[in-house]
Input
Amino acid sequence: MLTVRLCAIVVVTLFLSSSERVFAVGSGGHERVQIDSIPHNVSPKNDSTLRCIPNHVQLKWTVGISFTDAYYVEISRDSNFFTPDFSQVVFHDTTYNYSVPQHDTTFYWRIRTDFDTTAIWHFNLRQPIAGTIASPLADTVTDYTVHFFWHPNPSGDRYELLIESDAFSLRDTVSSKDTSTSITLLGSKTYTWKFRPLCGDGVGMWSNSGMVYIDATQQDVAEQSGNTDGFRVYFNASASAIMVNAPQNTPMTKYSVYNLNGQPVREQWLDGVSTVRIESSSLPKGPIFLEIQSQGKIFRRMLIVD
Output
C-alpha cells in the first residue's frame, strides 16, 4: 500500500511593529527560529576606529522583513541627528559607500525604512600613525639579498614597502602579521626604502626612510644568509651574470623569470643541475621574479636588476 503525505504550505503576510518578531516553526513543530522584522547595522562595528585614510567607508546592514525596497542612509556628526550631514536613499541594496569628507571626526549613522529605524551606531576616523623602520637605517652591505625590518603599526591590515633608486621604484605588499621581508638587489647601488600600512582601500602615513648601499666591489660572489630555502642567489660582477646555487641534494629542473606584471621573460629546462647561470644582459632592468623548480617544489625570489 502506498501512503502519500501532503503538507500544506501557508503564506501569511504580517504587518509588524518595530518591536515585533516572526518565529518560523519547523515541520515537526519543535524548531523555533527567530527572524528580526527590522534591519540591523552590521559594519563598521559600533565605536570602531579607522586609522587609515579611506576613499570611502562602506556601511552594511541586514535586510529584515519590513516589506520595503528603499533604505534611507543617515549620517551625522551629531548623535541626536538634529543637523544630519548626509542623507541618501538606497534601493534594493544593503550597502552604501560613504565618501569621507574629513578625518579626526566621529560619525553617527543609522538606517531608516518607511516602518523602522535601526539603532544609532558610530565610527571614529583618526589620523593614521606613522610607522618606524628598524633596519637597514644607513648601512653598507655586501650581501645582495637585503633583509628589511620595521616596527609593527596598528593602523592597517597589511604593509606596503617602497624601495627606490635613481633608476626605478618598487612597491611590495606584505601581510600585517609580518614585519620583515627580503629582496635581492643586484649591482652596486644606493637604495632608499620606507613603508606604510594599508587598510581596505585606504592608506596610512609613510614611515621614516632608510638607506642601504650594495657594495658589490668587495667581492664578486656574495653568499646570501638568512634564506630558509637554502638557495644562494647572487650577482657575479665579473661575469655579468646572476648565479643560483642549489642546496645539497636539491637538483634544479627548471628556472623561469617573470616581470612585475607576471609575464614570462625567460625560462629554461634543466637536467638536474646544482648551479645555474643567467646572463643579466638578457633580463629587463628593475624588479623581476625568479622561480626555481626542484623535486616537485617551486622556490621564488624577488630580484632587482639595476
User: Anything to note?
Assistant: The first strand starts at residue 21 and ends at 25. Residues 263 and 293 are 17 Å apart (CA to CA).
